[in-house]
Amino acid sequence: MELLMYVVLFILNIPIYKWIFRRIFDDVDDLKQSVKYSLTPDIISLFRRRFWKDQFGELKLSVFYFCCLGIFVIECLVLTKVVDVIFQ
């Protein structure tokens, strides 16, 4: 029951995730670049003279991830409490 509730909540949040994506990234290539920067070690970025660009790309990816995760967790907590109140 709870797993189904979480899956449905995740699917219903897709428009919210898209909205957050459009606010943080310019396009899909910007997301790919941020993923590439997050997988590149900082020392290599430093030698390539892209250290701050790398840091900013990692920051954008982290903000996107934590915003989406935070929204999902908060909604799960609220929905769980609402279901508990309804079925008790």
List the helices and strands and how they pair.
Elements (H helix, E strand, L loop, with lengths): L1 H11 L1 H11 L3 H12 L2 H6 L3 H36 L2
Summarize the structure in words.
There is one protein chain. The protein is an all-alpha fold. It has one domain. The chain is 86% helix and 0% strand. Helix 1 packs across helix 5 and helix 2 packs antiparallel against helix 5. The longest helix is centred in the C-terminal third of the chain and has 36 residues. The two termini are 16 Å apart. The mean pLDDT is 93.
Summarize the structure.
Helix content is 86%, strand content 0%.
Strand content: under 5%
Q: Give the N-to-C terminal Cα separation.
A: 16 Å
Give the class from helix and strand content and strand pairing: mainly alpha
Number of domains: 1
* Topology order in helix (H) and strand (E) letters: HHHHH
- Give me the number of helical elements: 5
Specify Rg, calculated over alpha carbons: 18 Å
Name the features.
single chain; mainly alpha; 88 residues; 5 helices
